[in-house]
């Protein structure tokens, strides 16, 4: 079992899946995923913190996203953490952190 660079998340999709088709026939799916953490702060108040994650998937996994994952769907994903950068229209370097999904499990919800 390889535990190097492994990410497992359970959450709800925040938008419709964006599908990009490449000339070579490959398909990429991109979607955001919200995960929430609940705790009680020092004042005894219940607090909910939500984190947003960028997910990307390719090939058959992307096709599963396209067919079965609408906005608001609860899913579990497993993949690896990836980083990339690009220069925006003003020439400023932008950095993106993504989870490259290898496996998806469709859970309850919408």
From TrEMBL:
It holds the Pfam family SSB. One of its GO terms (biological process) is DNA replication. Transmembrane segments: none annotated. The keyword Transmembrane helix does not apply. PROSITE patterns: SSB (PS50935). It comes from the Bacteria. GO terms for cellular component: nucleoid. HAMAP family: SSB. This is Single-stranded DNA-binding protein. It comes from Chryseobacterium gambrini.
